[in-house]
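Field reference: sequence -> structure
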Amino acid sequence: MPAIRPRTRLTAALISLALLCLAPLTGAAQVPFETRAPNILVTDLGTGQVLIDRNSDVPLPPASMSKLMTMLLLFEAIEDGRVTMETTWTVSQRAHEMGGSRMFLETRHRPTTEDLIRGIAVLSGNDATVVVAEGLAGSEEAFGQIATQRARELGMTGTNIVNASGWPHPQHRMSLRDLAILAEHIIEAFPQYYPYLAERDFTWNDITQQNRLPLIGAGLGMDGLKTGHTSEAGFALTGSAQQGTRRIVFVFSGLGSERERIEEAERIINWAFRQFAERPVARRGQALAEAEVWMGETRSVPLVAPRDYAVLVPAMGTTELQARVEYAGPLTAPVAQGDAVGRLVVEVPGSPPLTFPLVAGAEVAKGGVGPRLRSAAVVLAGHLGLSLP
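Structure field:
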């Protein structure tokens, strides 16, 4: 006779704002922002909220912003031991002859990995990117295939890399969302290398050049990542700024001048930090609901937040947020403490619902004969339309 099992169902429990330790909060209806950028995406890293989005999923010419992909593959090569910061690289004639922004590498030079990082991050050197591509993959064409595959692994579905520098090519494309994904990954996975992107200047071959990134040292928290410009892409920027505990990433393209790019970056930073406030919705270890457990020593387990959770709300105006806990249950014993078994869903007016993982707050071992018999009886009663005390 087959074992009697419960019907799995999605359970949703409404959570009062009092339980979340929230007073009535500002609603997150979109705060108006007038932008000159035809393509723009602004996200808050801590909450994952999108503050503004226009054409973020359209594959567009990324210009030099795609050098972030070249830097990522170089950082990964350092981390897995293929190269070190002191490794020296060969400068090919092709690299030496690259036009546009340059590090001014010559074929007699043997730059180190650290030199090339600075040459790309600070100087946006097209020649430096070719050196890296040829050194890692043998050719720039092979590098493009590797970079495109790595982009897919990171969830960057609107990316096709043809070269290492962002040199104009009809098939070289990245979406703003992909650039934001890439920026966030570099910030979070490689904090030891990220500060290179904010260095003020770099001298190579007796030539000192300033960082092309605007607003470095302007007191706005701007500390990365990469500018871009071609006639097709316009003036573009993938940037990040941190103020206090908050960090934003923003990407835009299609502006008409360098001055517009600087002004737009400053306006975005001021708007994102001044017009939104961060509010907590759950504290680490806080139990938000109880989940039923099937065949366990106990009949339920608390669902808790594994870390602090917060949402952004406009700085002006008030409205209440709504939240619920969802899990597919009943859970089947054994349940290990820390298992991801549910989620907290916060409804933010004017934005898509925000979801945060919840974990089991305790261990529930598989029950003995008594708990198993009771679980079977409860399920059987349910099938018969009866209820047990």
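Note: The first strand starts at residue 9 and ends at 15.
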